[in-house]
Amino acid sequence: NHCFFGASRRLMKRRLYLETFGCQMNVLDSELVLNQLRAMGYEQVSTRDGADVVIYNTCSVREHVEQKVWSRLGELREIKASAPHMVIGVIGCMAEREGTDIFRRYPHLDILCGPGELDKLPAMVQSAALSNSNATSPTNTTARQVALTGKNTRRSTTLQAAEDGLETLDLSRSFSPADGRTQAYVRITRGCNKFCSYCIVPFTRGAEVHRPPQNIIEEVRRLADGGYLEVTLLGQTVNHYAYQHGDGRTTTFADLLYQIHEAVPQLPRLRFVTSFPRDFTVEALQAMRDCQRICRYLHIPAQSGSDRVLRLMNRGYTAGQYIELIDRAREMMPDISLASDFIVGFPTETEEEFQMTVELTKHCRFKNSFIFKYSPRPGTHAAQKYPDDIPDEVKRRRNNELLAVQGEICAANNAAMVGQTVDIIVEGEGSLASPPAVDAVKVELGWEKRKAQSSDQKQLIGRTRGDQIVAFNADPKLIGKIVNVKITAARQMTLFGELVN
Ligand code: 5AD
Ligand code: SF4
After folding, report:
1. Are strands 297-299 and 337-344 parallel, antiparallel or unpaired?
2. If you average pLDDT over residues 220-232, what whole number do you get?
3. Is pLDDT larger for residue 65 or for residue 172?
4. Is residue 146 within 6 Å of ligand 2 at its C-beta?
5. Helix, strand, coil percentages for the chain (3-state, nearest 5)
6. Do the strands 230-234 and 42-44 form a parallel or antiparallel pair, or are they unpaired?
7. Which residues, including other chains, have CB under 8 Å from residue 92's CB and lie 6 or more apart?
8. pTM reported for the whole predicted model
9. What residues contact residue 352 under an 8 Å CB cut-off, 6+ apart?
10. Ligand 2 pocket, residue 468 CB under 6 Å
């Protein structure tokens, strides 16, 4: 019986469970990892039970997200005891931040791989799978465990595309129209040089490296030819992009936008995240204004409305300069949609300083804001120099207050859209209650079920160019298409509309 099971196991595809935490960069990394492991004969499964390989692509930006991974790893201890062949990997920012200390706490873990080493993950998985299949006991760890983290050294010089395994990884992405997807990410920079005092990213993703424009354009073109409708350019400080060519020329972020727009006319929508306020040039705003297929959407984190706090955060701009940029963007593009991030309860933040953040939010009228309670990250300047002195209940109250202010702005922004006709990419079937039925907040969080109006009409969900969610009733065969919808009703987080023929 045992032998038979062993034989059939070898004939079956090996099962991979991959869970992703954190930012869009991680989502893209996971896609590339998945491509590589598929090519090795793995199939993705939706539960870790019975998986041959379990990989967590992790985020270190706040402690709360790390804790989720720690608890997952704890749970796997017993599962692995009864399935010693299972390969467990931690990849991404936690692997880089924690290093081999993780092995001491979690001896059942096999692989650690930082974000700068992901091109080597297939070999690591292969080798761990082989060691585990020969293992007599899961506690025999030393021979089995492998770790590759960058410690920021490997990529500290300008990227030599052809030589860089990561560049090959980006370029080798495979996709097919059969995946039925409409939206893709394309990296334009890796890493970050800003060293905002609270942020772990420069330590985990290393120094900033810019990809050659011809590689980026080629990747966008392949995606557009493959049926993708929207490409989002990714960078930790995406607008800081500036590629130095061998002959001394520089391709700036604005140049890159114009070049992609011109070289890939078959792509309906191009967008980019995340922008850094200090680096936003007028040329880049002009590119957004002039190029019709570039979405007028900016995710441009302010972090705080207080100059003193911004200085402690090492952000390199004042609230006044931030507001000036936002005002100029609005003046050039009145229909622009803006989003921000804020950290509340940064060390020593006073109530008055927090109110400056509230005022900045009211002035800028963001489409939405991502609001976080300050979380000290070991090794960062802030964690070393400033005691985390704002009590959690104060952080929570400020968080809720800012959320409420932003919520009112969302509701007003959305209400102002009623009557407009917008083009949306239809992403899938929705399950939102229609406007008057249920309490708005509950709907947004709960994605409650609702009945379709007739058999060939389902509730569909799509996104506008400004990244607003729109729900409307139509035939599901429209999924994956761009359609025009007239907005008929609005909630705080969602718009409702009718298909326009
Ligand atoms: N604590 C709280 N929020 C943080 N962010 C980054 N680091 C921290 C931290 N230590 C937030 C910032 C950033 C977003 C991705 O996460 O607002 O823009
Ligand atoms: Fe972190 Fe600042 Fe870099 Fe953004 S710009 S990744 S907040 S260091």
Report:
1. parallel
2. 96
3. 65
4. no
5. 40, 20, 35
6. unpaired
7. 21, 22, 26, 29, 56, 57, 58, 59, 114, 115, 204
8. 0.91
9. none
10. no
